[in-house]
């Protein structure tokens, strides 16, 4: 990685463009003022050993402070907070399956995913936390400064207060640079949203144990390694705007061309579709197709095997739900039990990129998932667990999935395994891939697919319910290509 990216003068104020330049300058900085990335890796490895972390699967009926409702079968906490496991009945005319039932996690409260940033020697640094989550495949991952549900930060669990929370709730200190509500997995959560927020501070902060300061460039470099940055970090970083002329961006000509698309005002004129056309395409699909998703008692979720021990699908597809006993000596509460959802296999998240009129474009799709608040959001080219589709005819398989195996190795630009949220999901991970193609994929694509630039994605992510959480993680992957 190089720090030679030319972002010009970087004003501390000056509206969105000024802030985007400051963020880009941090993205171009490979070495922090507190630790090198190599030193961070040593520190991070130690964090898994300085505390006692354990997650033990247990039957659902052995959960403490949780109960299975004798009438509905729903699984809920004694406080009536946190989340519940309920049933969902879905009807839609979008896609090959018109109706189904499934378990779903219902967490109606809005959580906080917040990163504190501060300038050191003129470069923005992010305050990050090495955090244990019970479902993490590698126990500890790098999380935002604050990552908390409303039940957690209002201390329903009667545990310790959350460190640095005061910067993300009113009356907060500091200056808000990013603040947007974003969705989470619509196949597993019912209308779940979190507040993605970045707050700048200027005063001195005590550096608490388990926290570190890193530049955005260091974070994006870590995006090239498996299971380091957790999902919540990735979604907040995706909401950060970047602006650069990209003339001296690190990497090759393709990376510089990708960075040049960050300026949405210029790429709108040369892109296949301008932003207004993209929004019209999405609105058309939302208006044309219907989705009815209704919460029902968990006991009425036909097609699933539901017992006091666990919830499974008879075909071994989709996911299981089971109980877990958790020990984490440095969390606000050091011991607890909870339900966890475990997907059946590692998923595939991939985007196809293509130069159209010399401009790199990303192929994205409109996805209807039952838990979305607004029925349709934009996702990556491919987003699936392939085994869930093994019994369907080829015409009903995810589009472009079979193409990925036929592309030459030279087409692969990015290939990293990234975990999904470890607070509710057990060992949930996806293989994130970026491919650059030529004539293998034409400009004309199916109606629920569209080409857009990285800059246009950055425009959409400033608003709620446009880009799904997988697309936002993919944005971080794409940013790591032009910045690293």
From TrEMBL:
EC number, as in UniProt: 4.2.1.159
UniProt xrefs under InterPro entries: EvaA-like, EvaA-like_sf
Gene Ontology molecular function terms on file: lyase activity
Domain dTDP-4-dehydro-6-deoxy-alpha-D-glucopyranose 2,3-dehydratase positions: 38-240, 276-477
Top-level taxon in the UniProt lineage: Bacteria
Sorted UniProt keywords: Lyase
Protein name: Oxidase EvaA
Lineage of origin: Bacteria, Bacillati, Actinomycetota, Actinomycetes, Pseudonocardiales
């Amino acid at each position: 990685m190089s720090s030679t990216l030319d972002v010009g003068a970087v004003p501390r104020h000056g509206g969105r463009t000024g802030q985007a330049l400051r963020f880009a300058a941090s993205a171009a900085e490979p070495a922090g003022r507190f630790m090198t990335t190599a030193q961070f890796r040593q520190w991070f490895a130690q964090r898994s050993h300085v505390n006692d972390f354990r997650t033990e699967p247990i039957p659902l009926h052995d959960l403490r402070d949780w109960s299975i409702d004798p009438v509905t079968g729903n699984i809920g906490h004694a406080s009536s907070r946190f989340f519940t496991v309920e049933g969902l009945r879905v009807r839609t005319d979008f896609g090959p399956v018109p109706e189904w039932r499934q378990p779903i996690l219902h967490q109606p409260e809005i959580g906080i995913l917040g990163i504190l940033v501060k300038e050191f020697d003129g470069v923005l640094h992010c305050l990050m936390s090495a955090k244990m989550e019970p479902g993490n495949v590698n126990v500890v991952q790098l999380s935002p400064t604050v990552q908390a549900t409303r039940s957690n930060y209002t201390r329903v669990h009667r545990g310790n207060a959350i460190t640095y929370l005061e910067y993300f709730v009113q009356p907060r200190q500091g200056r808000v640079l990013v603040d947007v509500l974003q969705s989470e997995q619509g196949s597993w959560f019912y209308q779940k949203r979190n507040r993605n927020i970045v707050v700048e501070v200027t005063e001195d902060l005590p550096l608490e144990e388990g926290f570190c300061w890193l530049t955005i460039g260091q974070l994006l470099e870590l995006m090239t390694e498996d299971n380091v940055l957790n999902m919540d970090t990735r979604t907040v970083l995706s909401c950060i705007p970047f602006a650069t002329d990209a003339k001296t961006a690190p990497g090759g000509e393709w990376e510089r061309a990708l960075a040049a698309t960050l300026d949405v005002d210029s790429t709108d004129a040369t892109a296949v579709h301008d932003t207004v056309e993209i929004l019209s395409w999405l609105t058309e699909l939302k208006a044309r197709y219907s989705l009815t998703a209704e919460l029902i008692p968990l006991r009425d979720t036909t097609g699933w095997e539901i017992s006091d021990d666990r919830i499974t699908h008879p075909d071994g597809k989709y996911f299981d739900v089971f109980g877990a006993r958790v020990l984490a000596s440095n969390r606000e509460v050091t011991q607890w039990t909870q339900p966890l959802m475990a997907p059946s296999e590692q998923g595939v998240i991939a985007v196809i990129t293509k130069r159209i009129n010399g401009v790199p474009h990303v192929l994205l799709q409109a996805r209807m998932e039952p838990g979305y608040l607004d029925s349709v959001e934009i996702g990556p080219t491919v987003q699936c667990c392939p085994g869930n589709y093994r019994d369907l005819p080829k015409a009903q398989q995810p589009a472009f999935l079979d193409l990925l195996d036929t592309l030459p190795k030279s087409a692969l630009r990015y290939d990293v395994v990234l975990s999904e949220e470890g607070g509710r999901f057990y060992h949930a991970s996806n293989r994130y891939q970026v491919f650059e193609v030529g004539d293998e994929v034409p400009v004309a694509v199916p109606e629920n697919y569209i080409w857009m630039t990285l800059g246009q994605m950055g425009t959409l992510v400033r608003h709620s319910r446009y880009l799904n959480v997988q697309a936002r993680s993919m944005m971080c992957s794409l940013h790591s290509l032009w910045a690293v």
